[in-house]
């Protein structure tokens, strides 16, 4: 009864599959994310609808859930800091859920091949690093060092490694509306550069990395599909376009256990600290050999020597 739904059955099936898949992989969605996705779909196809600015309201969401009973609203549990601490049993439960998921998908054998298991994470790299301990006269208080660039400037670097120890091409994200031509010309072979207003990874930038960098690299290196890519749970990059691309290309994005990336995430545990130690050494040598001010045009060629 009543008017036909704004979205077709096929379009609502897309939404339903996306919502359910995200929840199973550790990325439960907020209702506003669903509304944002519908708004983007309607703006893209230009379909006439009764919504304000093409964005549905709570009534539409209520009817959508009624038409799709496999999805329900669930309250998250509020827990204290002491209960939020990571425990061995919680981590073991996460591994158990991962195993169950892989068994249900009939791809558990993938975990025996390190070349098909990946972890990607981004880190902020300061362009003006501290030198650390230096030599100076005893009891000398006024010890300064002239900064080679903006003291708090940080550039985002997305790193991606397999369990077999192979590095996939990284992506460097700059805070630009448009990447300057002279900067684009300095990109090392096989690397990627992205842009965002904040300089941090966004949904569009992460999709660009997976679709245009990571997937072609997997194909060119003859990695067997499907592959699994572990990422942080706080990321908002897992949008509808990325979900459908990954389903088609057999790339599984799986969420690491929350608040435990300092234990479980290989990039945090094994990669970023030595990378930044090496980066400080590279910057120290750069400052000794160059008198002119450091700028982003030198960043790519410099960071390449650290990774």
Unreliable sequence segments: 77-83, 132-136
Distance between the termini: 61 Å
For CATH, the homologous superfamily of the largest domain is named as: Ribonuclease H-like superfamily/Ribonuclease H
Mean pLDDT: 80
Which class of secondary structure composition applies to the elements?
Answer: alpha/beta
How does CATH name the architecture of the largest domain?
Answer: 2-Layer Sandwich
- H/I helix tally: 11
- CA-atom Rg in angstroms: 23 Å
The major pleated sheet works out as: 6 strands, mixed
Domain count:
2
How large a portion of the residues is in β-strands, by DSSP E?
5-15%
CATH topology of the largest domain: Nucleotidyltransferase, domain 5
Shape: globular
Q: Please give the oligomerization state of what you see.
A: single chain
Can you write the helix and strand succession as a string?
HHHHHEEEHEHEHEHHH
Question: How many strand elements?
Answer: 6
What would you say this structure looks like, in words?
The protein is an alpha/beta fold and 307 residues long. It has 2 domains: 9-67, no CATH class; 112-304, Nucleotidyltransferase, domain 5 (2-Layer Sandwich). The protein is 42% helix and 12% strand. It has helices at 9-24, 31-45, 58-67, 81-84, 88-104, 181-184, 203-220, 240-249, 261-264, 266-289, 299-304; strands at residues 117-126, 154-162, 171-174, 192-195, 227-231, 251-255. A 6-stranded mixed β-sheet has the order 4-3-2-1-5-6, sandwiched between helices. Helix 6 links the parallel strand 3 and strand 4. Helix 7 (203-220) runs parallel beside helix 8 (240-249). The model is unreliable at 77-83 and 132-136 (pLDDT under 50).
